[in-house]
Structure formats: structure tokens, C-alpha cells
């Protein structure tokens, strides 16, 4: 423990004074002085070589793995979409065949006769009137033609 010292009127324990520095403190950004300069240069060289020899290759490997993963995912998605396109084209072709089958003119008449018990009327059952056209104009006279009474 330090011996008591007088500090201008009050007796008490005071810490030992710090030894004075040999030179004033170095300013920020000022070049290093003395024997520490070489040690600092060696330390900076070690840091740079560690970064260039260890960290950069690790970062490149991680980036490469990431790119391969992303490209594999994109390739999988492309394969799924190609399968969907192929199935949609096959379905479209089968629907075109079905439309061709269902839209035949003979098919409609057959369905009308079979399912709805409709029959083909003969020519003697028709009367054609002139007028009463689709445009709403009517002359009201009956027209006589061959086979119509």
C-alpha cells in the first residue's frame, strides 16, 4: 500500500504517480515509430495472407455451392413445367377429337330421334306464309308452292 501523501491540505492515501512517457502519444494515422514498426508490418502481412489464402477460397467455395443449388432447383422447376405442358397438349388433342365426334350433323338428328322422340316432319305438314319475317314486317298473305297445301 502506498504511503500517505500530502495533497494540499488533506491527508489521505493517493495512488502513485504514473511514470512519464518517453515520447508523446502517437497521433492517429501517423506512421509507427521505432522497433514496433517492423512488428506491425509483419502482423499486417500475416493478416493479409490469411485473408487471401484462407477466407477468399472459402467464400468462393460457398458461393459455388449456392449457385449449384439454385441451378438444380431451377432445372427441377423447368422439368415439372415441361411435364405439365406435355399433359396439357395431350388433353387438348383428346378434347379436339371429342369435339369432332360430338359436333357431327348426323349425331344431332340421331339424338333427337332417340332421346327426345322427335320425328322428321313430312312436307305436307308445313305451311309457309309470306311476311312475318324475322325483321318483324308482315304482309299476311299465304304463299303456295309445290308440295305445300
Query: What is the assembly state of the chains in this entry?
Result: single chain
User: Tally of extended strands?
Assistant: 2
Let me know the average pLDDT: 77
Compute the separation of the termini in Å.
Answer: 144 Å
Percent range for β-strand residues = under 5%
Strand order of the largest sheet: 1-2
Can you give a write-up of this model?
The protein contains two helices and two strands; from the N terminus they run ββαα. The N and C termini lie far apart (144 Å). The protein has helices at 36-102, 105-115; strands at 5-6, 11-12. 52% of the residues lie in helices and 3% in strands. The chain has a two-stranded antiparallel sheet with strand order 1-2. The protein has 149 residues and is mostly helical.
Helix and strand topology:
Blueprint: E1 5-6, E2 11-12, H1 36-102, H2 105-115
Antiparallel strand pairs: 1-2
Task: List its traits.
mainly alpha; 149 residues
Summarize the model shown.
The chain is mainly alpha-helical.
